[in-house]
Amino acid sequence: VQLQASGGGLVQTGGSLRLSCAASRRTNSNNGMGWFRQAPGKEREFVATINWRGSDTYYADSVRGRFTISRDSAKNTVDLQMNSLKPEDTGVYYCAVALGPTTTTDDRRYRYWGRGTLVTVSS
Asked: How does strand 91-98 pair with strand 77-82?
């Protein structure tokens, strides 16, 4: 399975970006999915997760109320709408397919990872 994340770029503080992640084949339809990010010099951190049906979501405190995760099972994609971006949101964003159907914040519970897309928020 290959995951391709796209939509990253350079945006000013307060701006918006929409990230999208597409799976190469239909293996994630029964799995939760998530987005993580890694800022320069920092460890990878959880951002958002969604269950297999798209009915349950969970967010990191730092992004709750600004970011929205969604999925389209027919298209085999998961998106991350990011609004009111801040410089501290800068980093490489990765999408991942979870081992199980539920939401999870633990990166050890994800089996497939995309290559990542860079988001840079200028102040």
From this structure: unpaired
Torsion from C-alpha of 37, 43, 64, 25, nearest 10 degrees: 30
Tens digit of pLDDT per residue, the chain (123 long)?
788 899 999 999 999 999 999 987 666 678 999 999 999 999 999 999 999 999 999 999 999 999 999 999 888 899 999 999 999 999 999 999 999 999 999 999 999 998 999 999 999
Positive or negative, the Cα torsion across 66, 81, 72, 27?
negative
Dist CA 1 CA 75 (whole Å) = 15
On the 0-12 / 13-18 / 19+ scale of CB atoms within 10 A, 73 is: middle
What gap in Å lies between CA 5 and CA 95, rounded to an integer? 7
